[in-house]
Design brief:
Strand 7 (118-122) and strand 8 form a beta hairpin. This protein has 193 residues and is an alpha/beta fold. The protein has 2 domains: 2-51, no CATH class; 56-192, no CATH class. The strands form 2 sheets. The chain has a 5-stranded mixed beta sheet with strand order 6-5-4-8-7. The protein has a 3-stranded antiparallel beta sheet with strand order 1-3-2. The chain has helices at 2-9, 15-20, 25-34, 54-62, 70-76, 134-143, 145-148, 150-162, 168-175, 182-192; strands at residues 12-14, 38-41, 44-46, 67-68, 87-92, 104-109, 118-122, 128-132. Helix 5 (70-76) runs antiparallel to helix 6 and helix 6 (134-143) packs across helix 9. Helix content is 45%, strand content 18%. It is built from 10 helices and 8 strands. The radius of gyration is 20 Å and the shape is elongated.
Length: 193
């Protein structure tokens, strides 16, 4: 009965969820052996037919507040051609990054600004992960330019300005929350416009 509940309600589940439903480790191992489920990562299982990025799913399960940022977010918004060697993920400053098999570079952002520009993208029907919008991603590229270089920030801003419907005023308005980055962004906008 518990197994049926698990199989009908979720496509991805944790060892703790299975245990809470009364499913033994032996039964989980048998389900993996016969192909009813696959092991996505340590303590995380997935149904074989589910089409999901395993790395992002693991990150979202292990850190529900995880938000894709910096080069990873810029690439998702087509604001850079750079391919990050690992997934850039932001967490609130007080939250400790979890251990993951997924290649992740963890960044801790200030609690007061963590949610600014944050959206969510669906990974499955029941699982999502945070993603900073294009404006916040550009601000972060300038704000943390010591990590990935000013050229990446300038390139992202140029690409964003070429897109239809962009509003430089919206960028400057959001930049007011990041006072150390705002002067550099304003100067870059003045140069490019």
């Amino acid at each position: 009965m518990a197994l049926q509940a698990l199989q009908t309600t979720t496509n991805i589940f944790t060892h703790a969820q299975a245990t809470a439903l009364g499913i033994s480790d032996r039964h989980l191992a048998e389900m993996c052996r016969v192909g009813e489920i696959d092991r996505l990562a340590r303590g995380i299982y997935i149904k074989p037919h589910v089409d999901v990025d395993h790395d992002l799913a693991e990150i979202a399960i292990r850190a529900p507040q995880a938000t894709l940022c910096l080069t990873t977010a810029l690439a998702r918004h087509d604001l850079t051609d750079d391919i990050p060697p690992s997934i850039n993920v932001a967490l609130p400053r007080q939250q400790r990054p979890p251990r993951t098999a997924a290649p992740a570079t963890w960044h801790r952002f200030d609690n007061a600004t963590f949610d600014i520009g944050q959206t969510r993208i669906a990974l499955t029907n029941e699982l999502s992960i945070g993603l900073y919008d294009p404006i916040r991603s550009i601000i972060d590229a300038y704000r943390l330019r010591h990590l990935y270089g000013i050229d990446q920030a300038h390139g992202a801003l140029k690409r964003w300005l070429r897109q239809s419907g962009t509003q430089p005023a919206a960028l400057l308005k959001m930049a007011t929350h990041f006072p150390k980055a705002k002067p550099t962004i304003r100067t870059a906008l003045e140069t490019l416009l």
